[in-house]
Structures are given as C-alpha cells and as structure tokens.
C-alpha cells in the first residue's frame, strides 16, 4: 500500500512539473517570454489583405503556392526590426478579425519557418506570429513611431 501511495504521489508531481514546463516552452524549446528574434526576415510585396486569424494563415499558404514576390531584409533593416521588438514580451494571440493594411512576413529562426503579420501606425505597432499564436505589442510611443517609419521605408 505504501509503494502505491509513493508512486501515485511521484506521478502527480511529475505531471505537475511537466504541465508547468509545457506552459513555459513551445514545442521547439523556445522560451515564450523571450523577445522577438530572427535569423532572416522576408516581406511579401504589395499584399495587405485582412480577415480572421485562420484566414491570414491561409493567405500565407496562397502566397507561397503562387510564388508571390517577397524581399529579404538587409542585415541592417533586420537588426532595426528586431531592436524595435526586443523590449516587448510575447503574449498569447487569440482568434480575431483583422482589417486591411497588414504586412505579411516570413521569419526564419533557429531552423524553423514562421508566418507573421504586422500592423503599424503612428499610434499602434503589433506583430502576430500565426504559427505559434503569439503577439508582440509595442507600448512606447517612440518605438511605435520608429516602427511606422521602418514600415514606410521597407514595405512597398
């Protein structure tokens, strides 16, 4: 009887620890609380269609199958982009509806490919990872304006 009780308690503790770890880390081991990072970034040119979160992910598939024009960011532009978002923490992204004016982005990081959409105005800066359902929101006014200027320069 004592062995059964110890085994049950050990299994409960193990289950609790694994649950906490699964909430903290994604499947590929990235810490969800870390700021946005990237090895390379591509922006789709001349495409900004809105829709639901699921629809945006489907639009990414359509762009890839149609071999839509995309442009790789230069190292300096990529560094500026990462620097803008490095102070923010990713939060869970919930299913929602988006308007037009979205910038579709592909990010390669750690050997993985992620689908992103970004919205920027002088008052708002949002980056959504549709692959991991994470959102980065810029809160500082100077960074919002900096992102807006960056988008005007890099997204035709």
Structure description:
- The chain has four helices and nine strands; from the N terminus they run αββαβαββββββα.
- The protein has helices at residues 2-24, 53-65, 75-85, 141-154; strands at 40-44, 51-52, 70-72, 91-92, 97-98, 103-109, 112-121, 124-129, 134-137.
- The strands form two sheets. The protein has a seven-stranded antiparallel β-sheet, with helices on both faces.
- Helix 3 packs antiparallel against helix 4 (141-154).
Summarize the structure.
With about 160 residues, the chain is α+β, with helices and mostly antiparallel strands. The protein contains four helices and nine strands, in the order αββαβαββββββα.
Q: Which structural category fits the helices and strands?
A: alpha+beta
Shape: globular
| CATH C-level name of the largest domain | Mainly Beta
Percent strand: 25-35%
Rg (CA only):
19 Å
Summarize the SSE layout with pairings.
Layout: H1 2-24, E1 40-44, E2 51-52, H2 53-65, E3 70-72, H3 75-85, E4 91-92, E5 97-98, E6 103-109, E7 112-121, E8 124-129, E9 134-137, H4 141-154
Antiparallel strand pairs: 1-3, 1-6, 2-5, 4-9, 6-7, 7-8, 8-9
């Amino acid at each position: 009887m004592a062995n059964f009780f110890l085994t049950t308690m050990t299994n409960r503790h193990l289950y609790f620890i694994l649950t906490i770890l699964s909430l903290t880390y994604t499947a590929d081991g990235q810490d969800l609380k870390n700021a946005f990072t990237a090895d390379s970034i591509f922006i789709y040119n001349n495409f900004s269609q809105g829709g639901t979160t699921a629809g945006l992910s489907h639009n990414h598939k359509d762009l890839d199958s149609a071999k839509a024009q995309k442009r790789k960011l230069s190292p300096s532009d990529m560094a500026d982009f990462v620097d803008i978002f490095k102070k923010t923490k990713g939060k869970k992204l919930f299913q929602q509806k988006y308007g037009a004016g979205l910038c579709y982005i592909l990010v390669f990081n750690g050997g993985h490919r992620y689908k992103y959409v970004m919205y920027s105005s002088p008052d708002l800066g949002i980056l959504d990872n549709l692959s991991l359902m994470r959102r980065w929101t810029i809160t500082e006014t100077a960074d919002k304006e900096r992102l807006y200027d960056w988008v005007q320069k890099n997204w035709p």
